[in-house]
Amino acid sequence: MVDNLRQLLAQIDPVPAHVAVDDASSSRARTLLEEIMSTPINTTTAKDAGPGRAQDGQRRVPMLIGGVAAAAIAAVAVVVLVVGDDDAPASRQTLAIDAPGTTISSCLPFDVNVLAEMPVAFAGTVTEMSDTTVTVEVDRWYRASTGETDLVDVTLPEENTSAALDGVDFATGQRYLLTATDGTVNGCGFSGRATSELESAFDSAFPE
Fold this sequence. Notes:
By secondary structure, the protein is of the alpha+beta class. 31% of the residues lie in helices and 22% in strands. It has five helices and nine strands; from the N terminus they run αααβαββββββββα. The longest helix has 27 residues, at 57-83.
């Protein structure tokens, strides 16, 4: 019975017995397998094919890949549009500078430990100025009590004849380091034009 089965299998096998068979792990066997896997398979017949229909699987596969690629490009475009939306209004908050004579004229000596207790501290560049307001575009928040905004409007007192704080004039295009308490910008050296010394003090007072 077994011999008969072997004989039948030998008759069906198209490979003659004298032909050497490569091992499945050989490079030739792997190459042949790759060729077989990459060969397109016809999925339709000429009878089924019509206008706009693929004649074989070789054409269907690129069409499918093209559809997936188009969907991926569309998804990327949506992400870019959402992330790149520059029309959203900039967030902002308002601080004030006290009028002269409304605070104690004497100042405490500048101390990094005192600076570290300030509830609001940020760095930014003056982008707009008027007789009543200085607008600062913030590039770094060291500490925020009511949220980090893109802009800070510093309201000047009516008695103010120049946009100055403790002798430091605000100027468009200049960068400043500012602190505030209870909505009022602090003077006495705790706010001023950005210098390497003041930046070093802020970095020490507000370590990341």
